[in-house]
Amino acid sequence: METDARIKNIMLEYYDSHPDYYTSLDLIAHEGEGGMDLKRIIGLILDNNARRILDVGFGSGRMLTLVALELHKRGYEAECYGIDVSKNAVNVAEERIKNLGVNAKFLQADAEGSLEFEDGFFDLVYSTYVLEHIVNPEAMMKNAIRVLKPKGVLYMTFPGTFHCYTSPFSRRNVPTTLKLLKIYDIIRMIFDGSYLRFRMTTPKLEGVCDDTDLVFLTSLPEIVRFLERNGMDVVDYDMEGYVTAIKRKKVGKDSARPLKYAVQFVFFSGRLLRNAIFGPPKARSCL
Prior knowledge:
Blueprint: H1 4-17, H2 20-28, H3 31-47, E1 52-56, H4 62-73, E2 79-84, H5 87-97, E3 104-108, E4 122-128, H6 137-146, E5 148-157, H7 174-180, H8 183-191, H9 220-229, E6 232-238, E7 242-247, H10 258-278
Helix pairs in contact: 3-4
C-alpha cells in the first residue's frame, strides 16, 4: 500500500500536469446538487451574518464564483477566499472571475498543511466534494476548525452513504472496506471520534468522470463524531452526504460520549448493512 505522502505526490503531479482537469469539472458538475449547495451556503452566510468566507479546495472556482456573484447581486459585502493545492486551479478560477467585478481571492495552499490564515479569521468555511480527495482528512478538518471564529459555521458536502463510488459499504467497495477494517478499528471508531480509518489505496487517475482521484471513502458517522470531538456542534447532516457544524465558544475535545457513539454506530451500521446487501431503494445511477 502506498504511503500517504506518496499518494499525495502522485495526485499533485497529476493535477499540475493536466491543466484541463479543472475545466473538465464544470462539464460533469451536477447542476441540481450545485444549486442546492449554493442555496445552503448563501443561507448560512446570511443567517449568520458571515463576512469572511473560505472555500476549501475550490477546484475550478465555480462554487466560490457563484457565491460571490450572488452576494454581490444582493448588495451583501463579504470577503470571499478560496484555497486549492494546484496552481492550475488558481489559473482557471482567476480566468473565470476576471472582469466580473466581484470580491473573491483564489490562493494556492494545501488544505492539509499549515494555512497562513490567523486563528478565528473566518465566519464560514465550506468545502463541496473535496473531502474524498484528501489524503489526510483529519488535518483538513482541523485546519478548517482552527481558522473559524467561535460560533463560526462549517459546511461540507461529500459522497453520501448511497454513493456508488465512495461509500465504504456500497457493493463496489465492500471488499476494500472488509480488508481495511479490523475489530480494533471498530472499537476506535465507536469510542474515539478523532480516528478516520476508511481509505482507498493509490488513486487510478484514469479520468474525471469516474472520480478516479478518490483516496478517502467518506463515512458520515465517522465525520460527525470527529467534528464533535474537535470543538464543533453538528447541527445538521444527511445520509446523502452533507454536514453543518458550529464552532463552540470554548474549543476543546468533547467529553467522552461512548453510549451516544455506540447508539449512533448501531443505527448507521444497520442502514449501511442494509444498503450493502440489498442496495438503497433509490440509488443514484452510476452510469
